[in-house]
Amino acid sequence: MKKCLMFLILLTLLPVPSLAEAGAHRIEQRSVPVYCTDLQDWRSAEEMVLIPDYPLYYVDGVKDLPYVELSDFVDLVNKVDTFDSRDPFGAEPEVKEDYACSADEDGVFVCAYQPQQSQVIIDFNFGTLTYTCMDTFGKDPAYSPFEIQTNELDFLQRVYNPKVSRLGGPKTLPLLDYGIPMIHQDGKYLLPLHTAFDFLMWVPKAPAKILCCNGAAVFIGARDTMFGYSDAPSELGEIYFAQQPAKRSPELAEYGYNELCLMLDFFYGLKSSHHIDSFRGFFRNNGYEEMLLSADPAEADQALVDVIRFTLDDFHSNFNFSSWMTGFEAEQSFEGQSLSSAIYYKNAAAFEQAFSESGSDGLEFYAESGNTAYLTLYAMNTAVDSDRFYSMSLEDPNNIGYRDAVEQILYAHAQINRENSPIENVVLDLSLNPGGDVNSAACVLSWFLGEGYVTIANSFTGALGVGQYKADINRDHQFTEEDSLRGRKKLFCLISPLTFSSANMTAAMMKMSGAVTMIGQTTKGGSGIVTPSVTGWDTIFTLSGFRTVVTLKNGSWYDADVGVVPDVYLSDPDVFYNRDKLTEIVNAIH
């Protein structure tokens, strides 16, 4: 008995091999070019080569599941960061080294983002990946960690107050529990390429970057536009789709399925409101698992289409682009309609008919009826840079961009505040606005409220960011009360079931302020920031991401996806676009 006990004690003292190292693997290296592009890039494909020879690794003879050595990948992240910070018309900058890495012999790899002293710790012994602070990892210290857009605009001032915001604590992802292969062998730390990208670049950069790999090259860019559009591929798309369509190996099919479950479980921002405990369980219980594990990538793509359309059904999540494995001309079936979509399209038909019957081909973006001014924003978009903002003429409304929100705000502000202006009420019409960019929304909020607040939460870390914006609407190069309508006019916002995304965010922030009377019908919602994503088999889709718009009340926050409820309900869509009738309603509100 004593001998047995001593034997067991000796066993416990022996070194334990890491979980990821069990058994020696046959590892093959292959070098490929890395192409890197941004949203609007007119260079030739040859000029887009960031790295001509980048090492990929293939394990145990599986030819379609690429791995990367993590130190090599950190070098790639630094090069992409340098590319993003370059002046397209200036000299090539020196390679940034904001990301540094270290590793020990015991199976722990650390990637540190030095400007924020934030780390990702990948433990090959326990099969985990831990962020010490995901909210600061990869974030420029000059901006709020919750900044969605960091465009340099002289007319839009951004203030981040950390006292009213909060960061999340350390968060761990159980990679091995999800079946993500991790190999620590011969001094190398190998992860699948997509896993390395997802957690070291996609998470901190979302929604800015995607990565694809057809085996012959790696492609990093801004959304699927780097491959062209549905009618024809770009030059880069021709290189990407030059590889012949192929069946997935069992290893790739399993990895792709596991990676999808992992990403959706932790980074689908509306998971809790969909009441999904785990996507693996959901896929299994509802008949999607077999399709997602199929050797045929087209069958897996169809399952993804159906999940996005009929289950996620949030209008921010969409199927975008087939992978090279199915080919450029691959088509998925989009038959059928979800309940939310059916309701939306019926509402859209009613409002669009009322709009078309309003007395003209379309309402002017700016109009006045008696003492009430109407600004109709059909989209939250702008093409205005700082130079044009301060130089553009506001004399002729025909020269104002039909769908440029900032140009329209400038024109409306000048008209409302002209000498002897009769305007007492201002109605911002967002009833047909499907959303757009955050810069436009911030300008609208600043114009109406003086200080426009945007509140963003991280559904993964539990962090909250409160951003404050001011816009120089009167173009005097100062940020003062004169730039805003608040306290000078009675303010109203017209909303409908078509008001979505950034327009919904604008309405939600106005409602939260208590300074604007909301009239119309409850908005469609849309709170998760649109986040381009890629499956492990290189299918591109967008996800309603983990950065979500929330409203604050008494220190608590609430998801804005439920929509904004009006203070004054209008049941008839025809009234929305009858400006004289609407003016009577507005003047009756006290």
Radius of gyration: 26 Å
Q: Number of helical segments? A: 15
End-to-end C-alpha gap = 90 Å
What general outline do the C-alpha atoms trace?
globular
Proportion in β-strands:
15-25%
Please give a structural write-up.
α2 packs parallel to α3 (193-205). This protein is 28% helix and 24% strand. The relative contact order is 0.11. It is built from 15 helices and 25 strands. The chain has helices at residues 2-13, 70-85, 193-205, 235-240, 250-267, 279-285, 289-292, 297-312, 339-356, 386-391, 405-416, 438-449, 502-513, 573-576, 579-588, and strands spanning 27-36, 49-59, 67-69, 99-103, 108-113, 118-123, 128-131, 156-160, 171-173, 183-185, 188-192, 210-213, 218-221, 318-321, 366-369, 372-376, 425-429, 452-458, 464-471, 490-495, 517-520, 528-534, 540-553, 556-559, 568-569. The chain is α+β, with helices and mostly antiparallel strands. The model is unreliable at 1-21 (pLDDT under 50). β23 and β24 (556-559) form a beta hairpin. The strands form five sheets. Strands 8, 14, 18, 19, 22, 23 and 24 form a seven-stranded antiparallel β-sheet that branches.
